[in-house]
What does this fold into?
Amino acid sequence: MDLKQLYQDIILEHGKSPRNFGKCKKHTHQAKGYNPLCGDQVEVYLKLNNEKKVEDLTFEGSGCAISIASTSIMTELVKGKSLKIAKKIVLDFLNMIKNTQEFNSEDLDEDQKTKIMSLSGVKQFPMRVKCATLAWHTFTSALEGKKEEVNTEALD
Amino acid sequence: MDINKVRSEFPIFSKKINGKPLVYLDNSNSSQKPINVLNSLDYFYKNEFSNIGRSIHSLAVNATNKFEETRMSVKNFINAKFKEEIIFTKNATESINLIATTFGQQNIKKGDEILITELEHHSNYVPWHYLRETKGAVIKFAPINDDGDIIIEDFKKLISSKTKIIAVTHLSNVTGTIVPIKEIVEIARKKNIPVLVDGCQSAPHLKIDVQDLDCDFYAISCHKVYGPTGVGILYAKKKWLERLPPYIGGGGMISEVKKDKVIYAALPEKYEAGTMPTAEVVAFNESIKFIQSIGFENIMKHEKELTNYAIDNLKKINSVKIIGNPKNRAGVISFIVKGVHPHDISTIVDEDGVAIRAGHHCCQILHERLNLSATARASIGVYNTKEDIDILCKAIENCRKVFGLK
It folds into this structure.
């Protein structure tokens, strides 16, 4: 295990100064997520426009560096994408964290891929995987219009 | 007390964690096991294993005797009046569930009140919550002050004619508060209300005398008392165990079974249905012997000294805040570090071989009361040393470095 793999500069920087923090105006979807093991809480707000594009994506919440950074990076990468591509990015990310070594996505540029790959270090720290995935599950929940809070202990 | 000798009894301390010597400060969660406990498990399974109770062959008789020897040791360990007052369970959680279920079944009706405190572990709240769901009971939470002490005046005010039972921890697993159980029992006695004490955290660190405390029920998890997992203890006054209905039904807890009736066994078997964790109960006797070989006076002196040392040194670190400042405390120290989330602290100090816990420690009510979503917790055991605390403090400094804090 290597701490530097987990706490890469990108993560620390996003953890300290998260992007898209706050409640966005006129959001069309929102969902809450909770990780009862850490106490991490996140609320995701998203504005889907008539062209089915994620016009805005923001969040509020508190948590560890990994969870805040992961949420922040997610909002950066998904914002501005079409619904279809947004969903694909979420799937690709979860697949990368849970299964594969590589992040395969045709929808992001190299710089964006590097950002996402900075989160891959959590794979060496199984207890921290849920910190990284909470926001992404919550985003999906918001899209699906689910009322109940996402709870990492209830996910497989 | 010879700390080197104590440590040498724990094989795990010769192991390396992440290439570093283990600094085990997660004792509130569970304790490490001395060699005699491990040898006992091994010896029993290799040479003496049998189920207990019914069979009359030599192995069964011997196993039963050893099992009952532990019961006697536990009786003496907590100074119970009768050995029938010692019931073996799976853990303290099961002990509390046993009382909540059987007491609730017999004595709780809609609108009756159960008084607990804001300090309680989920295991001393959720079993009572079941009675709220099934019986319509009302749960009241005695408040604490910012130091983490129960406000006794408020506690008294929360007792009403409807209060049917009081359930309170002996030692908080977050703030380290030692709760004045005798005082609480005295208050309860005047109103004839039984008191259940969650002794999970206290049993390894304080000398317990259930007759002196005069509580009605006392719950212990043996794995926190340098013993094996899978064994818990319920102490209950005999009058209660005789009066309350049985909990789990099955073999071993009956005296006669007919098509139209079942007669239950006498105490303590009435509450010990099915095959018990025989080897583990037998091995727990060695845990008690281990503690007795050091003596509670020495344990308490050593741990008090270490607790003070830890608090003093943690306070010296820039931006560490210790949670609570109870009047009477033990070596459970929860803290936060400004700018570093407890989970990040736990992961980072783990690299230095330091095992602490991060989260709400199964005390969400208390964390909500303290306006915290999570804390880091270092909890001391008999084998810890000042060097352990020094390594912890250095590891916390390293967290600040990883996060680029000055």
Notes: The interface with chain B takes residues 1, 3, 6-7, 12, 16, 36-41, 62-66, 125, 127-128, 131 of chain A (CB under 8 Å). The mean pLDDT of chain A is 89. The longest strand of chain A covers residues 40-48. Chain A has one domain: 3-144.
